[in-house]
Amino acid sequence: MSEMNTKDFLIGSLIGGIVGASAALFLAPKSGKELRSDLSEQAQAAKERTNQLTTNAYEKGNEWASYAKEKSSTIAKVVSDQSTQVVDKVKEATSNLKSQAEEVQASAEEVVGDLAGDVQDAGEEIVETVKKEVDEIQAKVETGTATN
Questions:
Q1: Which positions carry the signal peptide feature in this UniProt record (predicted)?
Q2: Residue 145 has what pLDDT?
């Protein structure tokens, strides 16, 4: 058997109660005046009870609406705070990466400068060594041709 909906059950119970009460009133051995009086009293009681239930439902609805608004506001604030923290961390990380990149670039420029100076010094030494060797070879060639 399928599950019975609570709302349908309550509506059925209410209708059944009304029909049962009406049947009891009509079948009771009372005069017309007494019956109308009883019906009027029962109708007035039902009206008051309905008004009371309506008021309670309205109040509960307002309470739940306020509660939901409060909770959603709290959640929105938490999300906003966390988003701000994430943005700040990303900015900080970006700043750190930028400063590290600048440091690496400065170090690389320094190393390139040092290497360029070393290469230039080594090049000058090689040039002087080659000049000396050429001069020595030239001197040997000149002395060798002079002795021949």
A1: none
A2: 65
